[in-house]
Amino acid sequence: RGCEVRAGAGRGSGRAEPAPRGLSSVCAVTEGEPGEGREPFELPRFWDTLGQTFQVTSQEATKLSLAFSRPPLPSAEDCQKLSEDVQNAILAVATVYYWLPKGQGTTLRKMVRDATTEVVEGMIQLTDTILSAPVESLSQEQLISTGGVWEACEQVSNLPRGEYNQAAVVSALAACLGVVKDAVEEMEQALVEGQDPYGDIMEDEELGFRGNRDTYWSEADRQLLGSCMGLMKASKACLKKVLGAVKAHGKADSPEHIAQLDDIADIANEISPSVDELALSMYPPVNPLPVRLNVITQEAFLMNFLHFCRTSHVCPPSEEGWVQFLNGAVDHNMNKIKNFTQGQL
User: Fold this and answer.
1) Where is this region: Disordered (predicted)?
2) In the chain, at which residue ranges do the beta strands (DSSP E only) sit?
3) What average pLDDT score do residues 4-15 get?
């Protein structure tokens, strides 16, 4: 739906009718390409202007919500003015996003694009909520939608603003590391708590006590899972070490260095979901085939990650020791997993 409003088009409710364009151009933000070479790009100016446009959009969301919070409803002329102000605010946000050239790094661009899209989609939701809510009072849905736009606009302050793409890649790696840490801690807790990893699930009222042995790990399962845990911990160590290397040595002073940082972030984004998939396959009843397939996938991502980092500018000779150590750790756990599963496939 659009943010543009047709004045006087309400069907007896006194509300304005949305035009079928305007904010629906969110697809242009998610699919379009920022411009290159139109004028010299200044990152400080970009951040300042982006922050200003997000702030204006937040204010327009407040004005729009208040205008439809209680009778009497805005006149046709006021509706037109509200519509134009909202649309101009959104177009300004999208325009500033398009200032950001691809040469500044795809990781940074994606973060800014996601933040911009969240603001646009939040305004779409607010507009739809206003159009569908009763006119007598401010609805809970309208309050939530208005707060959603405020929250989306505030996210601009959390975007990484360090040295061009380097800060964005640091942020992306930290997010991946957080996901992997959570998966490792969850699985460690399940293994320590006892034979039944589903022990915190309430008993079924009809079936009573859960006596299904498929909810338990056998001793053979635990031996296999010990090596799988070793691989998950190696994944966490890889992300932690590479994050430290990017912080210490990452540079965004040339197209080659920017591209290398983007590649590191892209590979890291494959590691965290593959760790989750491995963890899910480790719950009982344990099937060795999916465990082994997930382990092979995890090994491929880790080896690719380590190899790429070792050949990039973030890994000078002083960092090669931990790369070799983690290579050995991955190989060691892979060999143990292959031995455990070979006779069960």
Assistant:
1) 1-39
2) 5-6, 17-18
3) 36
